[in-house]
Amino acid sequence: MVLLTGFSSFLFAQQTIEGTVVDKTDNSPLIGVSVYEKGTTIGTVTDFDGNYSLSVSGEESVIVFSFVGYTPVEQVVGTAKTFNVALEADTESLEEVVVVGYGTQKKSHLTGAISKVGTQGLDQIPVARADEALVGKVSGVTIQMTDASAGAAPTIRVRGIGSITADASPLVVLDGVVVDSDYLGSIDMNDVESIEILKDAASAAIYGSRGGNGVVMITSKLGKEGKTKFSFNAYYGVKFTAKFDDAFQSVNEWSQYVTSNNNGELTDRMKYIQQMGTETDWVDTMFDGGTIQSYSLSARGGSESTKYSISGSYLSDEGVLLTDSYEKINFKLNLKTKVNKSLEFGGIVNPSYTSKRDFPIGIHDALRQQPWLPLYLDENSIQYVDKDTYPDAEIGDYAKERMFDNYDLYGDGGDVDISTTSNVSPLAKVLEREQRVRDFKLFSNAYLKLKLMKGLNFKSSFSVSYRNKEDEEYQGSLAHRDGATATEGNYDTDIYTHWVSENVLSYNTRVGDHDISAVAGASAEKWHHTSSDMTGTGYEFDYITTINAATEISEASTYKVEESLVSAFGRFNYAYKDKYLVSLSARVDGSSKFGADTKYGFFPAASLGWRMTEEDFMQDLDFVSNLKLRASVGVTGNNSGIGEYDAISTLDVVTAVIDGNATTGYSPSNLANTDLGWEKSVETGLGFDLGILDNKFTVGFDVYQRTSKDLLLDQDIPSVTGFSYTTVNIGEVQNRGIEIELGARLFSNSEINWSVSGNMSFNENELTDFADASGLISYVDSKRPAEYIALEGQPISSFYGYKYEKDIPLEYIDNPYYPMNVESEDVYVKDLNGDGEITTDDRTILGSPYPTFTWGFTNNLSVKNWDMSFTLQGSHGAKVRNMDPQYYGNQFSSKADYTDDFPDADFVLDRIYTDLFVQDASFIALRAVNLGYTLPKSLISKYGLGNARFYVSGQNLLYLMSSEYTSFNPEGVTDNSSPLRGGYQRGAAPIAKAFTVGVNLEF
Amino acid sequence: MKKYRIFNLLIVGLLLLSSCDDFLDLSPVSTVGSNGFYETADEVNTGVIAIYDGLQDVVETEYAMLEMRSDNTSSKNHEGEWGNFDYMNVDVNSATVSSYWTYNYNTIFLANTILENLSAVTDETTYNQYAGEAYFSRALCHFNLVRAFGDVPLITSVITQSDNEYFSRVSESEVYTQIISDLTAAVSDLPTRSNIEEGRATQGAAQTLLAKVYLEQNNYSAAKSLLEDVISSGDYDLLDDYNDVFYNELNDEIIFAIQYITDDSDDSEIFSYNFTANGSASGLNYPTDDLIEFVSTNLNTATDSSEFNAFLASEEDLRCSTLFYYEPLSGSGNIECGKYRADDASNQQLGGNDWIILRYADVYLMYVEATIGSGTSTSDATALTYFNAIRTRAGLTSLTEVTKDNLLDERRIELAYENQRLFDLIRFGEASSVLTTFGLTEEGSFTFDSDDLLLPIPQSEINVSNGALTQNSGY
After folding, report:
1. CA B272/CA B262 separation, integer angstroms
2. DSSP state string for A844-910
């Protein structure tokens, strides 16, 4: 097409015209206006100053100036060389269009709660994933960096948590097609035109059983009519992290602590450590920082009938941890063409590849190290190695704590032991293991659209997603204290395929004052998942890490599951005089996951809108440019919480050894529940949209209440049944909240543009009914069972435990000075009920893991060629159970480490059971800040460039957290397996900061 | 023409919808639906195999609750949950205890499943064998539970989570009545060793276990008669070399053992690994100084491997070399458990040692116990023959009279690490005095309380029992 355009221009170009296109109202230049010769493929678009230049065939040519939202203008060329055109806004079509389920809708006719994020600037935020870039942009949507390592997915929640077992992530839809939720990790932000989030049930109900957690609708970029436009975007920068080392004391600091508490004396161990003179900063070692870089090239364009977009991108993120990294390669081809007046077809092909290397151990494990331990043996430290036990130790080996035991400090044959663990150095644990996930995904879609009559269209589309996930791990011979006997290679693959067939009829018409649009359709979907797991052990060397080098295959298996879903859906929208708005929708879903009696679910919704500014009585209130009231009610569902075959009882294959041989048996794996059904949410909402002074100031306000019931729960049951849990539908949870979105165009002329926007969300989560499970206690780690409670009247999960009273005085601790940084495992707790003893009745609720208030603020300012933007984001009211101090403080001694006579021994309990570990997770972050300069047109046009902009950008440069919080990421959550155990953090990766420089070029 | 095309498309759509029910009715691919299972003898057999799979889980950490709570062993660094076993201070939230509870009841469920689906087996011999295996396993698990927890729920049929009446604790005597009835059925149903695959429950195993149950009940005559049956069956024998009992699997001395194989993620054990310095808490089930010094004269003073080996050579009791293994690591506590070492596994965490539940030496010693009965000693010739057979194999002199103390001491050494010690002490009425004394030593470091002899009912089970389960006193 590019060639063709150039070719035809060359053949027929006989005359060149040029000029400027401006807006008729304020004479500001219009950028991107299509200027083309009617009936040909000759065309161009206006540049940043509204200028264009075009070679046309001759004097009789008709030139068309067209621009979205403006009435097109046609001109006969004649003899003139210059055409300056002023386009007039077309109020009818200027209206912003919003993507909704199975269609689009005029923003003014919208009756649900939908937030739209234009992607301007999002592609410059130096983060590896599209979803990370949305942080702070939308009210009611929390995007939390629960895992801050390179390439890891954030946790997205729309209007709070309404499920216990099921996945609470929103549904993701790309150009109308449901995709895998991880798609947000593979898409290139440069390909995204806009993102809409359907927040309320009335908008999401057309996605029925999968709309319960909101819907993220992505619209990808497509070419515009005219000359092919290339754009190249790149950035490069560094990633680093804030140091928080209060928890870690240096050798000197600890020596001082010992001296001042131990009658001015150092212990033998501390004397030995001082003599050795080694010191390692483990935070520095493990958080080594890295670079981040991204390159993206696209070509977009088309003719009147065909439009296309081709793009490719590469991103590399080295992460801030020692070994973590993420690479992403993405290609996308988007095409649509009109065969004739009534037939259109098109499609998308979108392959992507990601490779993610993990930091193989928890941060807590990497940092809980003794500061005296060197990384490697050197000439100094090797002198202290116990040669009897480690005769082979040599310079350059990983140092290990045990090597330094048995030291004869006084030369009298005595020995001082300083090791606290038999483990290898954490450096070896990290560097000698490789854990990598490679993901190849192919998303493809083809559709056919038929115009049956005016306003009536039929669209049939078929999509296939394919994903091949390779999970490869190797533990080398130096990674474990057991050496070669602990070597292990794992190779797991998961192949997912998902196809969707969709047939949709849509109808739009306007008869007088009646605006009607309707959609009806049916779809069928099927998922296949095959997983295979292989484990090899007994590697004698580390040269080859694939399983062919293992001496034993200790596991090899494959596993398959399938799921299917059929649906019928419809929506009817009606607007009278653009004033009174009604929207009704419904969906029926049938899922293979459920029992015979509960297979189908029905999900209706209704919403109403009243545009008061269209009423006569509002006409006098000139300053109110827009006022719309909205009310909605809808039902959505969620079926992700149960396994494919939970409704029927199944038998798993097991093996036992009989006569020395593994022998196959079949063992029942669950209790059947044929009544197992959908989780359903009923949501009601009220809201208004207000625009003041020609929409210079806008306010969006929503209040909602969502009641989710028949929650799927893996309920613990008495083990005497043979099983410790079973899946049931139980209980009810409510989310109530208020969302406010504010916008202001503070200043706008041809040189200065300044706008700000902000959003605030308040959400309250309450477990309103939990049947006989109310008061359910759960915990994440059975070895450290710090508790959570699910109690009616409280949030779905609350931290539960004891109140800290005071520490045990040092004099009662057997070994208060070693290991370094040591804290006692136990503390005195409060006797809350005052019965003179500490029992389980002294436990109380220690806080909630869910924020009550979140907000975002975005500023955009441009002055002439300079532009500046930033986003601030905050979250308040949540707490986090931060387990890291237990490790940093080496709180692992048991009660025997206290002297026999210590007072009130019945009043002590593990620190981890107290509020000391439940910390304020509030934060305020400067998410993205961006300063750019666009080169003057005059300078770049001679190089054939349409636009050139350079910028510097920062991510999380400012990150404020509560002083109560004592680790590296208050957003971090390391166990996401159940909302009943929210906000659990043990060794979460640190918040990453980035500083980058970038360029946007168009030509 | 155009209309015709639309018509076609609509037909496709309708077809999709009309075939909905088939489309949504998916059968599992990698698991078996339980509707219509257990309809042939082979299918029932796979369910019996599942019982043995369940027993693999049951015994995997039993040593922590039984041996480490006695004076025989402890964890090496006494950390966390493991240290609590050493100090007789078990937490109601102990994951090990709750797993033990769960695994036992899961195995009981698997046995009950078989007993309720036996009608598919038409061959009488096969029918009896499967029934016997199920009765035996159900009895074994109830016996495990009643000894460890006292009164426990008694489950003799497949129940669901709404069958509240089964969640309460039933008196020990009632549980024992059921155990005896199950084992009596197993004795009559099960084939002898030579008529069944090695490793599955046999008549001899049921007789031996029932004898043990009778001893627990002080029913010495019934125990003795069963033990005589086992001995006269000729199916079992003492091996010449004590070490071979543990490292030459499926030998004649084994009456019932749970089998494992090396380097197999489904069928290997990890206890061997945990018994070394690399295991949890720097090593579990480490022999106490009390045990080492009870068995040997010098071993505990060895400072390196060669000295240890030299001492070993001079030890009178030949079992020392099997019981103790010297690990030349720095620091104290170099002596590890010498039974169940996984040296033949390429991955130490995937060990293949069988876990012995019943063996012939125990039959001999139980015979002596049954002979002494409620007395204090015996000079019965048969009892002396059996008792001295054990001593002779260990290189020790024969006795002419066996007191209860002699017997308890011999059992401590011969069956060390085999989860017998705690129950022996209780059965012999010595638990209180022995454990009080041991608790006062430096390595014991606990104050004995007779409540500690029972494990706590797992708090997680009490939480979900709707009030039916109550806690043991002292917790």
Report:
1. 11
2. EEEE-SS-SEEEEEEEEEEETTEEEEEEEEEEES-EEEE-HHHHHTT----GGGB-TT-TTGGGEEE
Query: Do the beta carbons of residue B439 and residue B447 sit within 8 Å?
Result: yes
3-state helix, strand, coil in chain A (%, to 5): 15, 50, 35
Q: What is the pTM of this model?
A: 0.80
Q: B472 — contact with chain A (CB < 8 Å)?
A: no
- How far apart are alpha carbons A361 and A371 in whole angstroms? 19
Phi-psi label, residue B323: left if phi above 0, alpha if psi -120 to 50, beta otherwise: alpha
CB pair distance less than 8 Å for A501 and B158: no
pLDDT exceeds cutoff 90 at A107: no
Q: Can you tell me the mean pLDDT for A261-270?
A: 87
Q: What are phi and psi of A499, to 5 degrees?
A: -120, 150
Q: Does A726 touch chain B (CB under 8 A)?
A: yes
H/E stretch holding A74 reads strand A73-76
Query: Do A665 and B52 make contact, defined as CB atoms within 8 angstroms?
Result: yes
- B-contacting residues in A 117-156 (Cβ below 8 Å): none
Using DSSP, state whether A926 is helix, strand or coil: strand
This model of the complex carries an ipTM of 0.90
Q: Which residue of A has its CA nearest to B265?
A: A554
Mutate to test the interface with A, among B6, B20, B48, B260 (most CBs of A within 10 A): B20
Amino acid at B174: E
Show the tokens assigned to A907. Answer: 């009043």
Range from A34-43, A304-313, A434-443 carrying the lowest mean pLDDT: A34-43
Best CA proximity match to A908, nearest among A812, A823, A827: A827
Position B139, amino acid: A
The secondary structure of A669-699 as a DSSP string is -S---TT---EEEEEEEEEEEEEETTTTEEE
Residue position matching structure tokens 């533990």: A475
Q: Cα separation of B414 and B406, whole Å?
A: 12
CB pairs under 8 A between A and B: 276
**Is the Cβ–Cβ distance between A639 and B179 less than 8 Å?**
no
The SS3 call for residue A765 is: strand
What are the strands, taking DSSP E only, across B307-463?
324-326, 335-337, 355-359, 377-378, 402-403
- In this complex, is the C-beta atom of B37 within 8 Å of any C-beta atom belonging to chain A? yes
Q: Rounded to the nearest 10 degrees, what angle do helices B381-393 and B404-414 cross at?
A: 40
- How many angstroms separate the Cα of A854 from the Cα of each of A523, A739, A873, A874, A875? 37, 10, 8, 6, 4
Compute how many other C-beta atoms are within 10 angstroms of the C-beta atom of residue A755.
17
Contact B84 A488 (CB under 8 A): no
- How far apart CA A280 and CA A425 sit, in angstroms, is 12
Strands A171-174 and A650-658: what pairing? unpaired
Chain A partners within 8 Å of B267 (Cβ): 655-657, 662
Give mean pLDDT in consecutive 10-residue pieces for chain B, a chain of 475 residues.
48 54 80 80 95 96 96 89 91 92 97 94 96 98 97 94 89 97 97 93 98 97 97 96 93 96 91 90 92 93 88 93 84 82 86 96 97 95 97 96 96 97 96 96 91 94 88 92
**What separation in angstroms does the CA of B149 have from each of A18, B203, B390?**
94, 27, 32
Of all residues in chain A, the one with the smallest CA distance to B342 is A485
From B280, which residue of chain A is nearest by alpha-carbon distance? A422
- pLDDT value at residue B2: 45
Q: Do A656 and B50 touch (CB under 8 A)?
A: yes
Residues of chain B contacting A666 with CB distance shorter than 8 Å: 32, 37, 43, 46-47, 49-50
**Euclidean distance between CA atoms A4 and A305, whole angstroms:** 14
